[in-house]
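Researcher: Before we compare anything, I want clean individual predictions. No alignment, no superposition, just each chain on its own. First chain goes here; please echo the sequence and then give the structure tokens.
Model: Echoing the first chain and its structure:
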Amino acid sequence: MRPCATPASPQPNLDRRVGQLSGGEAILVATAGLRLRTAPITLLDEPANNLDRDHRDHLGRLVSGWTGTLIVVSHDTALLELMDDTAELHDGALSVFGGPYSAYQEHLEHLEQAAAQQAERAAEQVVKTEKRQRVAAERSWRVAPGTPGRTSRTRANPRS
């Protein structure tokens, strides 16, 4: 990798101060510096923000060759595809899934499908129960002729 080299300027200018670097170049220099420190654990928080495609590619190469533990917090799905594991922090709980982001998404889709199927089965059961209750209620209102409790009303003949 050539630090600070861009497609517009293929030769890096190593004499520039950090304050003269573009945002993408500064992120890449900082990330390269973290990699050189070989810390046992490194956290990158949204490292791909404000990077153009070429700088994202450089970042991807840096991440792919990382030694040690690298924790990346990002919305960049291409960057998350490079991860060995995917974790989700939701409602104060951390869930870890072994595999890149696409495998995690497939896992979530399967969970959602299973939940939808369970909800469908539960709804069908409710409908069956309500139907049985309705049929039982209708039967209790229909009593056979001559059965105690059944009365018939006849009209009195006004002429008699």
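Researcher: Okay. Second chain, same rules.
Model: Second chain and its structure:
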Amino acid sequence: MATFATRLRELRLAKGYSQKQLAAQIKVSSQSVSLWERGPRKPEKKYIALLCFVLNCNMEYLLGLTDELNPPLEELTEEDYDLMPLIKKDEDLTKTAIQMCQLSEEMLEIVKATIQEAYRQDRIHDRLKPAEDHIVSIVSSVLLHDRISNNDELDSSQ
């Protein structure tokens, strides 16, 4: 399987972006993109989701964990159509997560504090909802990326 660096370059070129254009899309320097493509560095976690969004690929493909760019969708069943509101919620959460990655540290701290206070209020008033499967899958993806990043850091330090 290809490495992250190889995949990033292939996907960027397939989209017709220069390193500078891709960098502008995700708000980093073109030097960062160059370093990522050459391999000596990998992006911070917050940029992985942005890259996947801009390059229209799944995280596992970009990280070199699978050879399926975008796994084929199965035929939708009646039950799947019942889940459509959850899919819309998932898209909204993904968009919100991407927007949060682009916030300054100051604004991100404000968002975190706001969410923590809203959570605290709902907990006090017994209004918390159970975590839904689509939210769990988003969290799982983030944790998978964290695990891969931590392994990469251990490998490079040895």
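Researcher: What stands out in the second chain?
Model: The two ends are 23 Å apart (CA to CA). Additionally, The chain has two domains: 1-69, 80-158.
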